[in-house]
Design brief:
alpha/beta, two-stranded antiparallel ribbon, 22% helix, 28% strand, globular
């Protein structure tokens, strides 16, 4: 449990969002474009947005300042055991998580993270890896997908996934008949949300292509996903946190 840290409830007048873009593997050129888009969305919606690639900021005293943490195309092994435990406590206290694109290509040795994110990357098409495909939008009620067409045709790098978590609220599936290189078949989720271990998680598989963050439909999709992660009441209650550093 937390030593020397108050268990009081943290309330914020203006939500704070942390963008995390550390990479331990492939580094996406879209990272600064995602950062810029989220900063613009923050300015438009009254969030304070901070950016870091410093994993040492994943500690209880710092994370408790944020209503949501956005993994903006992270890759590889990016947090040590103590930092992982701190992030677990943050989610358990009621924090929010957003994963963009290769956030699913991160932390393969941390099963808790895989369940929070919702899946791990398994493969993508090659030569060229960027292709047009059709996204079948199946949830026309949730805020991050209700504005999208039922057949959303767009160009991106399309991930196939493994270890797909069993309790996802899937917003959209990728139609593998509309591109080559998919390996999930008919069950190919590409965007989802769910509650997990006390917190909220939203994931979108888009965002490899730099221009994704200039697409009005994708920006709205991301905006509403972040709003979900923020929650209706921006509070953290560390009395509910229980993870310990292994």
């Amino acid at each position: 449990l937390l030593l020397g840290i108050s268990f009081s409830i943290l309330a914020q007048a203006q939500p704070k969002v942390l963008i995390f873009s550390k990479t331990g593997g492939y580094r996406h050129g879209s990272i600064p474009f995602g950062k810029k888009a989220i900063e613009e969305l923050g300015a438009e919606n009254g969030w304070t947005v901070h950016y870091t690639e410093n994993s040492e900021l994943f500690n209880d005293l710092n994370l408790r300042n944020y209503a949501a943490v956005i993994f903006n195309s992270t890759t590889g092994d990016i947090l040590n055991n103590a930092q992982q435990a701190a992030f677990e406590r943050y989610i358990q206290a009621g924090g929010g998580y957003v994963g963009i694109h290769s956030a699913a290509d991160s932390e393969y040795g941390w099963p808790w993270y895989g369940e929070l994110a919702g899946a791990y990357f398994s493969s993508h098409p090659n030569n060229s890896n960027i292709r047009e495909a059709t996204v079948n939008v199946v949830d026309k009620i949730f805020s991050a997908s209700k504005h999208l067409p039922e057949k959303w045709v767009r160009t991106d790098e399309w991930y196939s996934y493994r270890n797909i978590y069993h309790d996802l609220n899937v917003l959209a599936y990728l139609d593998e008949h509309t591109y080559t290189g998919g390996t999930n078949g008919a069950n190919h989720p590409i965007a989802w949300y769910h509650e997990y271990d006390g917190g909220r998680a939203f994931f979108t598989g888009g965002g490899h292509v730099e221009t994704s963050f200039e697409e009005p439909a994708f920006r709205k999709h991301l905006l509403e996903g972040i709003k979900y992660a923020l929650g209706n009441e921006v509070t953290l209650d560390y009395r509910k946190a229980y993870a310990e550093t292994i």
